């Protein structure tokens, strides 16, 4: 047993970080806030670098790596606040033509959520609708113990579900003002089920949750760095605010959250166990959201402004926390698991 | 990122499991929680069984009498012994987990030959004389004085929070050997026999009702200079070696135990109807995630230690911070499950709930740990 990253994994992480720093630095990030359309050239560049084809076998033009490597890459994307349906394109690279190379952009949509939300509707070529997740009867308000505690959820987990695809221009949608300025959303008003797509949906859900958790982890780590960087430089009462124990303790707690989430996310990437993925998503969601809030607190009044990037991390963290299993659903599933 | 165990490690696990299956049914019943002489006898007898079977000092180096096992094997040992319900390290805690490793790392050949074998055989029990009444978390403020007189130090002062002092043979004692230099530089590390004239032990009763630790008063106790480990006034550095062992590996078996208790809590709640409480059920689900992650963090830390020279790194502070609070949340949840039964002081979960209150204080309070993480890991400036 050696849980640490291999040399190749560290190189992949560092290389991804460098690529994103070069192509999606702070200036590009702030420009995207004002004009949130996806940069097709960047998308193709990411495709060319193997960002989406990471897990495809080499004979299919892929890189032949595994889920742990995909997690490391998406952690970096989360750090950089890179926008776009990254998880969808990573998961559908082998299933939809052109996605692996970054030529076509697809999004995933969870049919059982209400409202049914679609990320980057103006930038997508196709939308893949996924059905058969944790039903609202099990996870919504007032649910949970209809047919015995956790029964509805257990049943939902067992459902195989299905997926279907639609060209983006054939989907009826209603406007929806996104909380996250970097992630435009639309509400899907007509769930078309005409073109089924053969996918292992339970597996897709599991991997989508894990890769989303990986982005949350990257964001949680980044906000620790932002808080610490600010605490070292910002002076009050003639000293850096980082000398104050109250600030130190906020920062230390942020690191603890991020590192606990890292252990959970990396382990789930290795074992691919459903319970570990659920736990990883729960802890990474919390780390991203809580760390962004604490980072905002450390930044004081400036943290509450649009000028500082903290709100972008918080809003994206909230958005991701709503996708592929909420805290409530995760806790119910994990409670149920204790009785198994 | 590899979480599979090698064939050698799996073989080690299988042999250990077989041995535990053979010997555990024949163990005498556990002594009462407050019977410290009984617990000493029980714990040292178990240590002797480990010694005879070749499992004593598993993670100690071979030249110190240990088995030279890898940190991963040590992890497997702690996992399997806890899973099988084997006795915990108990009264041998200080000797095996920090005094011994410190002596192995810093002692002279003569000191190692004298003190290490009796720890491994279960003959000697050690206690820790670090903390003082006026120097809690600020360990370097200690005032117990040692004045050189020929071949001896004459030691006077008082120690506190000394676990197992009532039944210990030896004490790892920090003393001030030079009061005129900056406070970290005038400290020495001594091995003190607990039966030396001038040593008085006054057991302290914890809020859990146990006398697991004591105050130790030292009145002109003569300790041979040859009992000093490391150079005179170099005790602070030796102490840091000790503390890194204490923080890094001391809680591994407990995480396994907490995961077992969490499952038992869920089943008990299902049986008594408390499971229908959404808040409680979600708390248990969340704790499931927490303890699973803490176990993975342990594996991460062990992997780091295995490749970084064996002394656990700062991951220990991150672990300790989260674990100490998660343990308290676990037993608070147990009280929710028990309802009025949580007022029964003899219930195992209630006793553990009480003792869990010490976890955010002992071995460096959460507040001190946060300072360590902020300053040494995150590089924030020192406070005033």
TrEMBL record, chain A:
SUPFAM superfamilies, sorted: Acyl-CoA dehydrogenase C-terminal domain-like, Acyl-CoA dehydrogenase NM domain-like
Region (Disordered): 135-160
Molecular functions per Gene Ontology: acyl-CoA dehydrogenase activity; flavin adenine dinucleotide binding
Keywords tagged on the record: FAD, Flavoprotein, Oxidoreductase
Every Acyl-CoA dehydrogenase/oxidase N-terminal domain range: 6-83
Segments forming domain Acyl-CoA dehydrogenase/oxidase C-terminal: 210-317
Coiled-coil segments on the chain, per record: none
Required co-factors: FAD
PANTHER family: ACYL-COA DEHYDROGENASE, ACYL-COA DEHYDROGENASE FADE28
Family under the similarity heading: Belongs to the acyl-CoA dehydrogenase family.
Protein name, as recorded: Acyl-CoA dehydrogenase
Name of the encoding gene: acd_3
From TrEMBL, chain B:
Protein name: Acyl-CoA dehydrogenase
A GO term from the CC aspect: plasma membrane
Residue ranges constituting the Acyl-CoA dehydrogenase/oxidase N-terminal domain according to the UniProt record: 6-123
Family: Belongs to the acyl-CoA dehydrogenase family.
Keywords, ordered alphabetically: FAD, Flavoprotein, Oxidoreductase
Keyword set includes Oxidoreductase: yes
Superkingdom of origin organism: Bacteria
Acyl-CoA oxidase/dehydrogenase middle domain segment(s): 127-220
Domain Acyl-CoA dehydrogenase/oxidase C-terminal residue range list: 233-378
Cofactor(s) listed: FAD
GO terms, molecular function: flavin adenine dinucleotide binding; oxidoreductase activity, acting on the CH-CH group of donors
Pfam families the UniProt entry points to: Acyl-CoA_dh_1, Acyl-CoA_dh_M, Acyl-CoA_dh_N
């Amino acid at each position: 047993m050696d849980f640490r990253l291999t040399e190749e994994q560290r190189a992949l992480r560092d290389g991804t970080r460098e690529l994103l720093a070069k192509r999606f630095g702070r200036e590009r990030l702030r420009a995207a806030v004002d004009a949130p359309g996806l940069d097709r050239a960047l998308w193709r560049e990411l495709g060319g670098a193997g960002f989406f084809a990471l897990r495809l076998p080499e004979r299919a033009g892929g890189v032949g790596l595994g889920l742990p490597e995909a997690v490391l890459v998406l952690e970096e994307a989360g750090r950089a606040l890179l926008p776009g349906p990254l998880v969808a394109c990573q998961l559908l690279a082998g299933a939809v033509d052109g996605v692996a190379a970054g030529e076509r952009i697809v999004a995933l949509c969870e049919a059982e959520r209400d409202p049914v939300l679609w990320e980057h509707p103006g930038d997508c070529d196709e939308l893949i609708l996924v059905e058969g997740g944790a039903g609202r009867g099990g996870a919504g308000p007032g649910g949970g113990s209809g047919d015995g505690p956790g029964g509805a959820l257990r049943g939902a987990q067992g459902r195989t579900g299905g997926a279907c695809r639609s060209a983006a221009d054939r989907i009826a949608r209603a406007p929806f003002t996104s909380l996250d300025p970097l992630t435009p959303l639309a509400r899907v008003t007509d769930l078309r089920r005409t073109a089924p797509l053969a996918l292992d949906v339970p597996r897709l859900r599991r991997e989508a949750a894990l890769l989303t958790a990986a982005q949350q982890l990257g964001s949680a780590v980044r906000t620790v760095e932002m808080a610490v960087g600010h605490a070292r430089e910002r002076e009050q009462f003639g000293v850096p605010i980082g000398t104050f124990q109250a600030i130190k303790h906020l920062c230390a707690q942020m690191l603890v959250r991020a590192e606990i989430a890292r252990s959970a996310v990396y382990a789930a990437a290795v074992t691919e166990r459903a319970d570990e993925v659920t736990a990883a998503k729960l802890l990474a969601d919390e780390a991203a959201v809580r760390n962004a809030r604490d980072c905002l607190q450390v930044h004081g009044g400036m943290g509450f402004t649009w000028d500082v990037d903290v709100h972008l991390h918080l809003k994206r963290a909230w958005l991701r926390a709503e996708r592929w299993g909420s805290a409530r659903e995760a806790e119910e599933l994990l409670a149920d698991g204790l009785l198994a | 990122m590899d979480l599979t165990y090698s064939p050698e490690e799996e073989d080690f696990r299988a042999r250990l499991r077989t041995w535990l299956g053979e010997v555990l049914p024949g163990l005498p019943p556990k002594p009462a929680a407050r019977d410290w002489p009984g617990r000493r006898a029980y714990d040292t007898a178990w240590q002797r069984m480990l010694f005879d079977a070749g499992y004593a000092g598993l993670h100690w180096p071979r030249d110190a009498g240990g088995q030279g096992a890898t940190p991963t094997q040590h992890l497997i040992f702690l996992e399997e012994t806890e899973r099988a319900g084997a006795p915990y390290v108990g009264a041998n805690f200080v000797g095996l987990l920090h005094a011994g490793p410190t002596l192995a790392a810093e002692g002279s050949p003569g000191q190692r030959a004298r003190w290490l074998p009796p720890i491994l055989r279960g003959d000697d029990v050690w206690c820790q004389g670090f903390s003082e009444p006026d120097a809690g978390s600020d360990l370097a403020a200690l005032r117990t004085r040692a004045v050189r007189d020929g071949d001896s130090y004459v030691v006077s002062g008082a120690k506190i929070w000394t676990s197992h002092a009532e039944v210990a043979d030896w004490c790892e004692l920090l003393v001030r050997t030079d009061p005129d230099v900056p406070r970290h530089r005038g400290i020495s590390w001594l091995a003190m026999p607990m039966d030396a004239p001038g040593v008085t032990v006054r057991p302290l009763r914890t809020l859990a009702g146990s006398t697991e630790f004591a105050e130790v008063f030292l009145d002109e106790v003569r300790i041979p200079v040859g009992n000093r480990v490391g150079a005179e006034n170099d005790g602070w550095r030796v102490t840091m070696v000790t503390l890194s062992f204490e923080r890094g590996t001391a809680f591994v078996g407990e995480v396994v135990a907490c995961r077992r208790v969490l499952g038992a809590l869920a089943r008990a709640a299902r049986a008594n109807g408390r499971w229908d409480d959404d808040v409680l059920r979600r708390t248990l689900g969340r704790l499931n995630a927490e303890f699973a992650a803490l176990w993975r963090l342990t594996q991460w830390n062990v992997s780091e230690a295995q490749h970084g020279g064996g002394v656990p790194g700062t991951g220990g502070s991150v672990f300790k911070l989260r674990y100490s609070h998660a343990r308290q949340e676990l037993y608070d949840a147990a009280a929710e499950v028990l309802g009025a039964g949580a007022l029964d002081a003899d219930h195992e979960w209630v006793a553990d709930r009480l003792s869990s209150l010490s976890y955010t204080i002992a071995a460096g309070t959460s507040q001190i740990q946060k300072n360590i993480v902020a300053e040494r890991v995150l590089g924030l400036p020192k406070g005033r």
